[in-house]
Write a structure and sequence with these properties.
This protein is of the alpha+beta class. The protein has six helices and eight strands, in the order ββααβββαβαααββ. The strands form three sheets. A three-stranded mixed β-sheet has the order 2-1-6, with no helix packed on it. It has a three-stranded antiparallel β-sheet with strand order 3-4-5. α1 packs across α2, α4 crosses α6 and α5 crosses α6. The radius of gyration is 23 Å and the shape is flat. The C terminus is likely disordered.
Length: 212
């Protein structure tokens, strides 16, 4: 799991023989509500329907609060507020409500989110449109990194994490179980995986083909 970047040339300045390069983060995919709900469902006791319902309710309340001159702070995420626009004037008397309009919703990330992102790994990617193919070893290391930071994972989340098929994710999880690095646990009918503690005996269980 990493933030990927590529190098891009700045517009050449007058007198420069060679343009300077700067790093720019690459967005390889936009995760929608359905995908996000499925990810959270796989690592919690909430259903995807519960999560999508909560997102819809938050969206409605967010609009209500912002349209009533309130900012909204979500713990661990950040603060939303409204910005306005109008033509520059010299006197307050020249400004009326009709001349002022909505500009944008401003988002300020929380210190907690910024701290997590500062600790994220950064990797170079050549070309901005190709999906990255991770080797088996790297995929398994990324799964272990995820477990170290988030505690649990399932087959769906492992596939999303490594941008691979569910079958490859299943194989990776099985191999980590065989190496006694992770273990399978159940929460109701759902299967999760956690890091194995040193004092636990190896398990003979293997992964199922689904997360349920």
């Amino acid at each position: 799991m990493s933030i990927e970047y590529d190098l891009f040339a700045n517009p050449p300045q007058e007198g420069e023989k060679k343009p300077k390069l700067h790093a720019r983060a690459i967005n390889i995919q936009t995760v929608g509500t359905n995908e996000l709900a499925s990810m959270i469902e796989g690592m919690s006791t909430f259903t995807a329907a519960d999560i999508k319902g909560a997102v819809k309710a938050i969206s409605e309340r967010l609009f209500f609060c912002l349209s009533n001159s309130q900012s909204v702070h979500l713990d661990g995420i950040g603060t939303f507020s409204v910005t306005l626009k109008c033509k520059p004037v010299e006197s307050r008397k020249e400004i009326r409500a009709a001349s002022i309009s909505f500009k944008n919703v401003e988002f300020r990330a929380s210190p907690e989110l910024k701290k997590l992102l500062r600790g994220a790994r950064i990797e170079r990617r050549e070309g901005t449109t190709e999906r990255k193919e991770f080797t088996e070893d790297i995929r398994q290391k990324r799964i272990l990194w995820y477990l170290k930071n988030y505690g649990t994972i399932n087959q769906t989340v492992a596939a999303d994490l490594n941008q691979c098929t569910r079958q490859k994710a299943k194989k990776d999880l099985e191999m980590l179980i065989e190496d006694n690095q992770i273990q399978k646990i159940w929460c109701g009918r759902r299967i999760f995986f956690t890091k194995r503690m040193d004092d636990q005996a190896p398990s003979e269980e293997t992964t199922d083909e689904s997360d349920e």
